[in-house]
Amino acid sequence: MAGFDLVRRPEPELIEACVHCGFCLPTCPTYVLWGEEVDSPRGRILLMRAAEEEGGELTVAQVDAWDNCLGCMACVTACPSGVQYDNLIEDARAQVERNWERSRADRLWRQALFALFPHPGRLRALAPFAAVARLRPPAAVVARLRALRPRAAAARLRQPPRVVARLRALRPPAAARLRPPPQLVARLRAFPPLAAAASARPVERFAARLTAPVKRLAARLTAPLERLAACLAASLARPRALLRLAPRTPLRATIRRLPERTAPRTPRRGRVGFVQGCVQRVFFGEVNAATVAVLAAEGYEVFAPRLPRCCGALQLHSGDADPARRLARETIATFEGCDAVVANAAGCGSAMKEYGHLLRDDPAWAERARAFSAKVRDATELLAEQEPRAVRHPLELTVAYHDACHLAHAQGVREAPRALLRQIPGLELREPAGWEICCGSAGLYNLLEPEPAAELGRRKAELLLATGADVVAAANPGCALQLAAHARSLGRDLEVRHPIELIAASISGTPLRP
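The chain above was modelled as a monomer; its predicted structure follows.
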């Protein structure tokens, strides 16, 4: 294992920009959870400075601190000095992936996730298994099983009823007659050779000799076995988190296909490229369809190609830089001729706006990447820049708006989706407390660090439920899955919709479908 190599190290001038003021601390999810300096943005920056200045191999403390970061960029919003923590943490994570030897289990799990999520075809193949994972036995069956007395059932299974009755009728005095008479026991105990043997207790000494090596072996194995048990528990926690997040998407919806070109339905404003995403197109196809419908209704010609399959956001935010750069080049080449490039998933939009930084050292692509990133817009951001054309029909709903971190913090887009929702007659917008704290989804974070992600998810679900709103609006697929899953863990159902779905329902004049 080595320390930081010479390829794209975290830039010293960005590290020095942090003055350790602490404004970031109340907004950092891991600092809020654990209260440890090392798990705060400024603590992680100090670890980067140590790796940069002192050299040497990376340490477990450094890697754990950077792995524990959700990359939510709430600290970027809070920082008065404008520290570019987003660029720092992504460069540090890329260093970790190149120079740190992860455990075999961790490595295999990460490889499995990256072999699955950026591939829509593989996600579609997984959809039937996700549907099976969501199956629950009928409530009546559950109630009967819970009412069943385990001891009585076990007794009925162990012995036939007649045997049980005879055993219960057996009186203790009858059993006592099977023992030797007390007088004989007393005389034997008084016999001198037997008394001496009893006092010497050779059996106990022999047993002690036999058990001593076993006890020593058990003492040696206790710590390794505890570590093995902890590793097994951690290994099982990640697949359990994946099953818990399984989306409630009808199988027929996973094969939805968008037309590659959609004509504008009002006077043409321009031609936009629409990035369908990997998770979004499979499990939230209705969101993509609503996005195309709204853009067309507002005068945009929509170009929505099937490829590229992924924009590289998951890889970029996890430190897997080479695949991220390859997918970035494919995306740029596909959409260069468009007036704007639209994303409706916050993580995708954030990643594409970072292409200029990602490809800054590539002479053939650096300028193209900067020009491309300048054209990227979130769907709500683009729509809010223009006066609406399509008539909005009333929706009698109360809506709690959830700020997706990669939209609010990474892209700085907070007002646009709210402004669009306020344009809908009859819709009442409610603001939950703690908007700046991440819900725990954070790309693949809830599958890599399921315990803190689950705690953050429960807290966020409680805050949203406390608003009493009919619907939660969230502009990111990971957030939608996380919030719905942790509301279920609290015994509640939370209807999570993309803001674009609400706008599409208002334009079409049809109620939201469950």
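The domain at 391-508 is CATH 3.40.50 (Rossmann fold).
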